[in-house]
């Protein structure tokens, strides 16, 4: 595609997605940093989990000891009250993507990750980056279990 990706954002839950992508990037020397947006744990807990799994995955696929500890980066400011519990930010992000891009995020993973992606962008975290890749991990059908949050005027932008 000829597209140079400068940074990648992924949801970080059980850590399988984050660790697998990180092992792939590092093993292939892609030069693309990967940041995870936590959906449940603290930064410290999640980074330890991702690190362990990424190192073991790289070794298992024959890429050796290619994942340095400083390549593991997680953000925990967007979890809210806990795993799968809606936040105002998530409701706003899901609404924003649905109304401007016709992309339906899921409220548990990609919704909260998009909150992080938007906030980090606003804070200048991606300064100097031209192309930031956001991984939508699917799961949109779970949206329907959260419809109430989107109808509730106490959530999101209508408050
Ligand atoms: C829709 C969706 N996205 C992302 C994830 C998170 O992936 P992981 O648990 O590998 O961190 C999950 C996990 O169940 C999921 O269902």
What order do the helices and strands come in, and which of them pair?
Layout: E1 7-12, H1 16-27, E2 34-38, H2 43-60, E3 73-75, H3 88-101, H4 110-122, E4 132-134, H5 147-151
Parallel strand pairs: 1-2, 1-4, 2-3
Helix pairs in contact: 1-2, 3-4
The protein binds pyridoxal-5'-phosphate.
Describe this structure in words.
- This protein is of the alpha/beta class.
- The protein has one domain: Rossmann fold (3-Layer(aba) Sandwich), CATH 3.40.50.
- Helices cover 39% and strands 11% of the residues.
- It has a four-stranded parallel β-sheet with strand order 3-2-1-4.
- Helix 1 packs across helix 2 and helix 3 packs across helix 4.
- The longest helix has 18 residues.
- It starts with 6 loop residues before the first strand and ends in an 8-residue tail after the last helix.
- The mean pLDDT is 95.
- The structure holds pyridoxal-5'-phosphate (PLP).
The small-molecule ligands in this entry are:
pyridoxal-5'-phosphate
CATH architecture label: 3-Layer(aba) Sandwich
Largest sheet: 4 strands, parallel
Rounded to the nearest angstrom, the distance between the terminal CA atoms is 42 Å
Unreliable segments of 5+ consecutive residues:
none
Total helical elements: 5
**What fraction of residues sit in β-strands?**
5-15%
So what's the CATH class?
Alpha Beta
Large-scale geometry: globular
DSSP, total strands: 4
Strand order of the largest sheet: 3-2-1-4
Using only C-alpha atoms, the radius of gyration works out to 16 Å
CATH topology: Rossmann fold
Give me the strand/helix succession.
EHEHEHHEH
Class from helix and strand fractions: alpha/beta
Task: Work out the count of structural domains.
Answer: 1
